[in-house]
TrEMBL record:
A GO cellular component entry from the record: cytosol
Similarity field: Belongs to the LysR transcriptional regulatory family.
Segments forming domain HTH lysR-type: 1-58
Organism of provenance: Oceanobacillus profundus
Keyword annotations: DNA-binding, Transcription, Transcription regulation
Name this polypeptide is given: LysR family transcriptional regulator
Amino acid sequence: MIFKNFEYFLAIVEEGGLSKAAKRLYITQPSLSKYLKRLEMNLGVELFDHSSSPLKLTHIGERYYTYVMQYISLDIQLQKEFSEIQNNERGKIRLGLALWRGSCLLPDILPSFTSKYPKIEVNITEGKSNFLVSELINEKLDFAIMNLPPEMDYEKLTYETLKQEEILLAGNIDHPLIKQLDNNYGNSNQYPFIDLAQLEDELFIITKPGQNLTTAIMHLFSKQQIYPSNKLETANLTTAINLVSAGMGFTFIPEGGVKGKQLPDNIAVYSLDDPVLFWELAVVYKRNTSITNVSRLFIETLQAYYKK
């Protein structure tokens, strides 16, 4: 319990009496005496041994003194944190992203971000797109990095595009079909082209229903009238990639998974050169909510990363 003008109490303690404390505070001794009586009456205890000269704290007074000093320390710390928050030096970010994207994206940007802003806490939530959307709507996330869900509720959510991302086919370089390819680049300037019809009888390792990537892949199969009979489903794209690396079939990965050195050395990626396999990668957040300054710093870091 801290009462107004606690600095008067501290002056009495430090000066050892009312007279010196009053001079230090530029108030009259009677006024300071009234303050002390009122303070002890409000607390219901004696803070000083009034029979001693200089005044000495009672045991209860020592406890109150410790409490006041802790209060002052906390107040200074709070003011410091307020200043840091206003200057974008401190805060918390609640970030959501897909099950696999964190392993591709975060090693490239999080170390430098936390080094630059060491007092900004980043809390990471990973999950399927429908889970992330639910967390955004329930305000459990500040924003999510995700490919736009095909049925996103634009009345509740809004977004900022990071890039147009291509979905690529991944295969093992030792697969017989891969070895036969002539690395024709088709309309792509970056990835060699492969005709999906050549692979209809091969094993496809795809993500499970409910994930954005699965929806895009099934749309592609339907559009090209390809009906693979040999499929293996997994919720984790990293598992799919590692199975392909081990010699099992083919899988599909967003272009973001190719950036850096995240893929095994024996994985080759190919463009299917189909508009269906281009989707927006975006920062998604709840409509009509303000993005905090520290969240905006992270979003700007993402934007710079994807412009490279």
